[in-house]
Design goal:
The protein is an alpha/beta fold. It has seven helices and five strands. The chain is globular, with a radius of gyration of 17 Å.
């Protein structure tokens, strides 16, 4: 999980940020990105791609991650209205750029989950396919992003009850699509998505 980080250290980089997003595929809610800088050599047992962990495991690891003061992280959030205006790929890039820009420490290289990389101002970056299961830095960012977004979706339930957001977090489950048919769109639904065909 530290291979990519170690290779960058060998090349002379000193401060490496991992970036990942949560919420690219749902029908409702924001896309959330996290940028995370770990101390050199840092390892935390259990850290993996957030999608491989259940909700309780993610929450436990999230609390552990936040307990380390030497870990620097930041969040970028782009809401459904902006997603509808600029499309989900551009919104994801924007959330990643926001997360990196608001880090209290400026990284000298960025590892991004996937093969599509947004432009970062004056910082080099590398895309890693399945990076959230191959890079400790990206995996840590993925947990932060996922837990942050899940908590936001749970909170939205109080504002927009009846859709089941605490359960499906905005993804296109059968329950969610039926709720949309019954209640219509809420203000946090992405109007430009194809609601009929997403599984």
């Amino acid at each position: 999980m530290s291979y990519f980080e170690e290779e960058l250290y060998k090349k002379g980089y000193h401060c490496i940020a991992g970036v990942d997003e949560a919420g690219r595929g749902p029908l409702a809610g924001p896309v959330v990105a996290a940028a995370c800088i770990l101390p050199k050599g840092f390892l935390l047992e259990g850290v993996d791609d957030s999608k491989k962990l259940d909700e309780a495991e993610r929450e436990t690891l999230y609390q552990k991650i936040l307990s380390y003061k030497e870990i620097s992280f930041s969040i970028g959030v782009v809401d459904s209205g902006v997603i509808d205006k600029i499309n989900i790929l551009k919104a994801t890039f924007l959330a990643m750029q926001q997360a990196v820009a608001t880090l209290t420490i400026k990284p000298d290289h960025i590892l991004v989950d996937g093969n599509q990389i947004p432009p970062f101002q004056n910082i080099s970056a590398t895309g890693i396919v399945m990076g959230d299961s191959r890079s400790i830095t990206i995996a840590t960012a993925s947990i932060i992003a996922k837990v942050t977004r899940d908590r936001m979706m749970i909170a939205f339930d109080a504002e927009y009850p009846g859709y089941g957001f605490p359960k499906h977090k905005g993804y296109a489950t059968k329950e969610h699509r039926l709720a949309i048919q019954k209640l219509g769109f809420s203000p946090i639904h992405r109007k430009t998505f194809n609601f009929g065909s997403r599984a």
